[in-house]
Structures are given as C-alpha cells and as structure tokens.
C-alpha cells in the first residue's frame, strides 16, 4: 500500500489557453469559457472523474495526490485522474487522453453517469461541474508514470481502506471525490 512516485520526463501537450464546455443544469451545452474564467466565476461546466481499478489479489483503486501547485485542491488525494473535455471532445475520449497525459496509462473507459456539485476554495476559485464518472480496468503489473505537473504521488488502495480513510480524514480528499467514488462503486457491487 506504499505511495509510489514515478515521474515522466515527457512534456504535457496542452494548448496555452484551455477552454471548458459550459452547460445548463440539464447538461445541455450552452457555450464555452476559458478554464480559469469558469473557475473564477463559478460557471457550470462539464468535467469527468476517472477511476482505474485492478484485481491483485483483491480489487484495488488507483488514487492520486494532486500536485501542490495545481490551481486548486493541490496536495489533496483524489480519483485516478480528473479534468474537463475540450469543446467538441467526447467525454470518454477526454478521459482516455488525460489518463495518458497524467499517468501514462492506456485503458478503455466506460461512463457510469454524472452528478452536479459545487465547491469553493480558499484561493477564491470554485468548481461548479457536471461531473461524469468514468471507470476502467488495467492489468495488475501495468507501468504507471506520473506527470509531476499534475501528480505528486499515487497509490493502490482497497475499497475498505479507502472508505475508512475518507471517514476518518475527509479533509485530505478533494471535495468531489466521495460523491464520485459512490457512483464508481456501483460498478463493483
């Protein structure tokens, strides 16, 4: 259960200015906004949370600790990866892209649906998201290479241990994590 930190030397491929898909409360696309503006103005936008699991010898989830210098929630533990689809990009394709960019993982994902949440951070930024929960499985011995711009650490954890950690220290996790986890766990029961 130790924490692993393997870093990639590859550069992340993202445009200088990123845009998110703005949506209404029914998840209907209504436009786009620059990513930081959406977080500064608490605009409702589309996002996703990816959960990768393996069976070795029991089911484990891969979680990550966000890099300390992320624009919000730095240093907190969360799902395998999370981000936003780009305008015109399918949510599953976006999740598969971000898995590769953040952790060097190739995996087929499936969507379990979405939920809406809002969270405010001490630096004045906010999340107001329609968050798709995506899950995928990898082989127990697949190599994982973290991008240090995104991931401070990662580890495999059983569901029982993860639930105990969430109950005893919820402040160590991102605000969306517990809710997304409950959606993801429906696929394992």
How many domain regions? Answer: 1
Number of strands: 9
CATH C-level: Alpha Beta
Please, what is the average pLDDT?
90
Parts with pLDDT < 50 across at least 5 consecutive residues: 1-15
- CATH topology name, in short, is Nucleoside Triphosphate Pyrophosphohydrolase
* Category by helix and strand content: alpha+beta
The main pleated sheet reads as: 7 strands, mixed
**Which range does the strand content fall in?**
25-35%
Number of H/I helices: 4
The best one-word shape is globular
Classified in CATH, the superfamily is Nucleoside Triphosphate Pyrophosphohydrolase
First-last Cα distance: 22 Å
**Strand and helix order:** EEHEEEEHEEEHH
**Percent helix among the residues?**
10-25%
CATH architecture field: Alpha-Beta Complex
**Computed CA radius of gyration, to the nearest angstrom:** 16 Å
Describe this structure in words.
It is a single chain. The chain is of the alpha+beta class and 189 residues long. The protein has a single domain, classed as Nucleoside Triphosphate Pyrophosphohydrolase (Alpha-Beta Complex). The chain contains 4 helices and 9 strands; from the N terminus they run ββαββββαβββαα. The chain has helices at 35-40, 91-103, 159-168, 177-185, and strands spanning 19-23, 29-34, 45-55, 59-66, 77-78, 81-83, 110-120, 126-137, 151-158. Strands 3, 4, 5, 6, 7, 8 and 9 form a 7-stranded mixed beta sheet that branches. Strands 1-2 form a two-stranded antiparallel sheet. It is globular. It starts with 18 loop residues before the first strand and ends with a helix. The model is unreliable at 1-15 (pLDDT under 50).
């Amino acid at each position: 259960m130790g924490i692993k930190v393997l870093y990639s030397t590859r550069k992340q491929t993202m445009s200088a200015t990123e845009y998110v898909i703005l949506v209404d409360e029914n998840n209907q696309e209504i436009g786009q906004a620059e990513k930081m503006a959406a977080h500064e103005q608490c605009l409702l936008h589309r996002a996703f949370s990816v959960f990768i699991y393996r069976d070795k010898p029991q089911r484990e989830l891969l979680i990550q600790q966000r890099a300390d210098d992320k624009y919000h929630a730095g240093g907190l533990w969360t799902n395998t990866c999370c981000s936003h689809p780009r305008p015109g990009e399918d949510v599953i394709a976006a999740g598969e892209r971000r898995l590769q960019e953040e952790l060097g993982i190739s995996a087929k994902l499936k969507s379990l649906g979405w939920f809406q949440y809002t969270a405010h951070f001490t630096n004045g930024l906010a999340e107001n998201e329609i968050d798709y929960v995506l899950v995928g499985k990898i082989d127990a011995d697949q190599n994982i290479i973290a991008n240090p711009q995104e991931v401070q650490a990662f580890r495999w954890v059983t569901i029982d241990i993860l639930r105990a950690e969430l109950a005893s220290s919820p402040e160590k996790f991102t605000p969306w994590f517990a809710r997304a986890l409950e959606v993801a766990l429906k696929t394992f029961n």
